[in-house]
Design goal:
There is one protein chain. The protein is mainly beta. Helices cover about 5% and strands about 30% of the residues. Strands 15, 16, 17, 19, 21 and 26 form a 6-stranded mixed beta sheet that branches. Strand 5 and strand 6 form a beta hairpin. The protein is globular. The chain starts with about 35 loop residues before the first strand and ends in a 47-residue tail after the last strand.
Amino acid sequence: RYAEFSDLRNAYHVGIAERYDLVSKAGGAQQMAGDYLHFDGRASHLSEGSWGIIRVLDKETPDLKKLPGQPDIPASAKSICPADAPVKTFNVIAADRALKFNNNASDFIEVDFDRKLQVANPSGKIFMLEGEKSKVASDGYQPMPLTLHVNVGDCIKVNLKNETKGGKVSFSADRLAFDPKDSQGVNVGNNPGDQTVAPGKSKTYTFYAHPQYGEIAALVWDWGNFINNVRDGLFGAIIVGPKGSKYRDPLTGDDVSMKNAWQADVVIDRSIPQNVTRSDYRDASLFFQDEDNIIGTSFMPYIQQIGGLTGVNYRSEPWMHREEHGCDLGSMFTPCVAGESSPVTPTIMAHAGDPVRIHVFGAFNEQNQIFSMEGHEWPLKINMEGADMLSSEEFGSSENLDVYVKEGAGGPFHIPGDYLWQNHRMPYAAAGQWGYLRVLPAGDRKILPLNSGAEPGAKKVELPDQEAPETLSQQGNIPGPLSMLER
């Protein structure tokens, strides 16, 4: 990055005649030698050969000269996490799990030219926490993609067990610091050993939420069989929040700091100097997936509807299904199906004026997409003063957007109501990629108030302290990026 407060990225969509200069430091924040994978996040292009290796060396070799004026080549760091970093350990299972994106819709919906929109995936696979196993196995339970919450400076241990019926799996979280020879989650080049996990076996992956990266969101992928397993649902995220934060369920108040939670309230520790002026905020993650690689191309006759498996967080609300149940085009985004109050897709809830942060992931995509949310804007560069404000933003596969609703839920005037989020490529919205940001009046008890926005006497967040060291090494005087929620 050239601009001082530009956001950090590890993936970017690109179109014809576009170019981007990606500036980084060999070995990443972790400063570890090894072979790192670079690749096209679009699965079909990756399978066709769009990938390569960035080889980081920690000693001189005959075929690579040292840069002029540079000091001696530094040795690789001996460990990924500082000795005094707080440790969070998650026991994760990769398992087979049939996925029905909408229980009220047919498994397949006929679209154009004998193609089908897929609403169910009998060969689905998911990541889940060990403690969720019985719940996920129960009838009627609809899982969400694995979403874990950690803090800047945390050391993260993921104990992965492969309980799928066949084939290897792995756990990759690219935007965190890791040892490429141990916890990259993919077998690359000359890195030793096997970083995938056979059925019935386990492996521990170690990551570090480096202060240099700050508050980010890391997309989790399986690389045991990327083309099939990620398409079938083996994806998730690790969300990195402010140092010292805790996380609660906005409905029940339960502590979800060590749980799988696609939506959580971030409870900030304002006893930490850099957090003194910060507000608690609502946090949500949306995982978009699609696999139609024909629509929008020079295929004739021109395709107008989406085929294949398409959804958000293993869910979808296809228009054709809704039309069959009495909805017309003018009421498609309303509760027009008998007995419904919300779509099956994620409904993000907040009180009017609450700060809201939405992580939008290209979990598995054959096309670039457009995330849009009506009535709200967010900055193009979340840490940069004076950045352009957006109400729609493009993203591609393996990419994520950090959507910080600057003025708070309900827009600049904090008006309660249901606001539409959607994929603004309309064929994808019609295929079911849309939902609500539900903005409730301040004090509405459907969700708990944030600490910073609660009315007098309202219930406050009170979570038990975790047993973790209070100090962490900064590994030298390396400043992190300014928080997007600094006021």
